[in-house]
Design goal:
Blueprint (H helix, E strand, L loop, with lengths): L7 H14 L10 H4 E6 L7 E2 L3 H4 L4 H4 L9 H14 L11 E5 L2 E6 L1 H9 L5 E7 L3
Parallel strand pairs: 2-4, 3-5
Antiparallel strand pairs: 1-5, 3-4
Helix pairs in contact: 5-6
C-alpha cells in the first residue's frame, strides 16, 4: 500500500516546512536522497516525534480531525483524508507516499503527511512506514 517512491515536490514541500516553520537552514534539498531511508515506526514511537497533531490523529472521522473551525486547506483537508481512506480500503489502487520525518541533532520532527496519518489512524492501520530524512547521518 505504501509507495517506495516520494515525488520531488513532496520532498520539496517538507523541506520548505522545515525552513519556514523551524527557521533553520539545515542541509540542502539536493542532498536529501543521501540522507533518506524508509523505516517502520509504531504509533507509540511517534510519541517521540515533535509537532505531531495528536488531536487530529486521535479523531475517528475526517470531520472530527478537521472541524470547520480548523481546516487550513478548507474542504481539501477532508477530501485528502477521504482519498487516503479509499486507498486503505482498496477502493483506489494508488499507493500512499510515506509521511516524512526529519531527524536533526537526535530529535525527530514531523514534516509532511498529516492527512495520510489521519486516514491510517481512522482505519486503525498498524504498519506505518515513514521516509526518514536523517540530517545527523
Amino acid at each position: 500500500m505504501f509507495s517506495a517512491f516520494i515525488e520531488k515536490d513532496t520532498l520539496h514541500d517538507a523541506f520548505m516546512t522545515w525552513t519556514t516553520f523551524f527557521q533553520l537552514e539545515y542541509g540542502k534539498l539536493d542532498i536529501i536522497n543521501e540522507k533518506r531511508s524508509f523505516v517502520k515506526i509504531s504509533w507509540d514511537a511517534l510519541k517521540d516525534v515533535a509537532n505531531i497533531g495528536w488531536d487530529r490523529i486521535d479523531a475517528t472521522t475526517a470531520e472530527e480531525a478537521y472541524p470547520v473551525t480548523d481546516r487550513p486547506r478548507n474542504e481539501n483537508d477532508l477530501l485528502s483524508v477521504k482519498y487516503h481512506i479509499d486507498i486503505i480500503d482498496g477502493k483506489n489502487k494508488n499507493r500512499i507516499s510515506p509521511p516524512i520525518i526529519y531527524k536533526v541533532n537526535g530529535k525527530c520532527f514531523f514534516m509532511d503527511g498529516m492527512h495520510r496519518l489521519v486516514a491510517l489512524s481512522i482505519r486503525k492501520y498498524s504498519d506505518l512506514f515513514f521516509c526518514l530524512i536523517d540530517w545527523d547521518k
